[in-house]
Amino acid sequence: MIDLSTNELTGEFPLSITRLLDLKGLNLSENRFHGKVLQEIGQLKVLECLDLSTNKFSGEIPQSMSGLNFLAYLDLSNNNFSGRIPSGTQLQGFGNSTYEENPGLCGKPLTNICPGDELDYDIRPSGEDDVDGDDSEYERWLYISTVLGFSTSFWGIIGTLVLHCRWRRAYFCNK
């Protein structure tokens, strides 16, 4: 863990930090760093904690951060990040507070809609469950499997009675 928070450090994101491949935690919060966060940050594959909050970082969140699979804590708030939060990654699993005070950011989990997403963007706040079930993949498959199971059982019994004369006679004539 490297904690350089609250030291009034200035400059751009230190490239040398991205060479510490076994680094598990990095806290650069409350300094005066500026510029872009380097794509090389994605090389820190075992990083579990990353706090870059309250600096002056700008530009887009590097796509390479989506490869930080062990990341359990992330704070990018109070910077000048812009653009879309990388989609389809765990970066969208963090709450809104992770990205607050970055007015140029858009995309899930934020309610800021990115240009071009107006038609298909789900504006439900992060963490709110899908209570109506319309979009739930699990519920959709539950309904499909229930209908298929019922249909198979129903037609299995009816089909057997219709197609097998002895069974049909035994069932209907012995009553």
From TrEMBL:
Superkingdom of the source species: Eukaryota
Please indicate if the UniProt record lists Acyltransferase as a keyword.
no
Cited SUPFAM superfamilies: L domain-like
Q: What is its main location?
A: membrane
Keywords of the record, alphabetical order, are: Glycoprotein, Leucine-rich repeat, Membrane, Repeat, Signal, Transmembrane, Transmembrane helix
Signal as a keyword of this entry, yes or no, is yes
Q: How does it sit in the membrane?
A: Single-pass type I membrane protein
One cellular-component annotation, GO: membrane
The cross-references to Pfam families, in alphabetical order and at most eight, read:
LRR_1
Annotated localization: Membrane
Where are the membrane-spanning stretches? 141-165
The text of the family note is: Belongs to the RLP family.
Task: From the Swiss-Prot or TrEMBL record, give the protein name.
Answer: Leucine-rich repeat domain, L domain-containing protein
Name its species: Heracleum sosnowskyi
